[in-house]
# Entry
Amino acid sequence: MNEFFKGIGKIQYEGPASDNPLAFRYYNPVEVIGGKTLKDHLRFAVAYWHTFQARGSDPFGPGTARRPWDTITDPMELAIAKVEASFEFCEKLDVPFFCFHDRDIAPEANTLAETNQRLDTVVSAIKARMAGSNVKLLWGTTNAFSNPRFMHGASTSPHADVFAYAAAQVKKAMEITKELDGQNYVFWGGREGYETLLNTDMKRELDNLARFLGMAVSYAKEIGFEGQFLIEPKPKEPTKHQYDFDAATVVGFLKTYGLDKHFKLNIEANHASLAQHTFQHDLAVARINGMLGSIDANQGDSNLGWDTDQFPTNLYDATLAMYETILAGGLGKGGLNFDAKVRRGSFQPDDMFISHIAGMDTFARGFKVAWQLQADKVFTKFVDERYASWYSGIGADIEAGKVGFRELEAYSLKNGEPSIRSGRQEMLEGILNQYIIETK
Ligand code: XUL
Ligand code: CO
# Structure
């Protein structure tokens, strides 16, 4: 077998004292916390599109990336080489999962039939390689946003033929995800949104989006696909207004159309921040609705207003994200997918490893801190006490539906001025810092 990343061996855990950039300092995959290994808690995944497709181009210049497959020019030969490279990469990093869009793994041909044949060829190669590997598919998805035919959207296109084409594409992508034993299937609304209401029938587009998702649910049943369906919210980019704006919007949408039993959410850090939410907020919205399915782990830049998809190295945010995940009971079938790309200046092949290692170390450390925070009930105890007035007396009567405005007026007239306590935000933030610094 051809080795692509020569000179880089299996990445080892060397502990916090290590100065080796190609070693883990905090992520020890076999370390057991709460009866489960870190590897099983964190369920890391590599995103095929950023790591094996993207080359670092931006609106001001071409890609800068140097990759071990650069000499291969034939598109299908290249696609097969990337399958080999991706397994070598995941195995060396000890990442248990990968994720792809249909068009990442096989280039589009002139017709849909030919494109599907190409997919079959690459899927066979992936399946063969998977047989001798522990690396699995976390999720598959469809790229129904890059091709110009999707300029006005896919399932929300004003053109019925485009809706049909997108359906055909998702049908095939679901089939290959099933074939590769994918644990989830993601719908990210690429161009499902609008630029201006002057040319948009928003009601019809939302109805069609729901119709489309309903068809996917039916087809999954038909073919026996048991993976979890996920919707990935994003407020803007590429369209000015994306229909899957944020977690709350998606929960409301799914409930409106009676689809909530069939979907969970894939929460992405940089999408939450684009919606002016914290990562923790959108995870919490998913959690309280019983819909936290998976995570796209990355980070934005608070000085920039777009989806920068940086590798997640912010320990504070990672800790709070892991805290929400632990409160939700873990990731289930989901995982932590690095929907992240190296900066344009990080052009060397070893940067691909270094960036993932930094992200994995950040989440491993964040997880350990979060685990300790919940084990010590640091915040839950405070929150429980803060809401103590709901456990008896008038609070319990309100929650039991025993009283209305009339009774509450009578109560307040008698009770006088309510007694309130400090929220102690700064104290709690100080304790959070203490845990981040001191947790072993
Ligand atoms: C785009 C994005 C996508 C989805 C999969 O912002 O996050 O890559 O994760 O389509
Ligand atoms: Co994403």
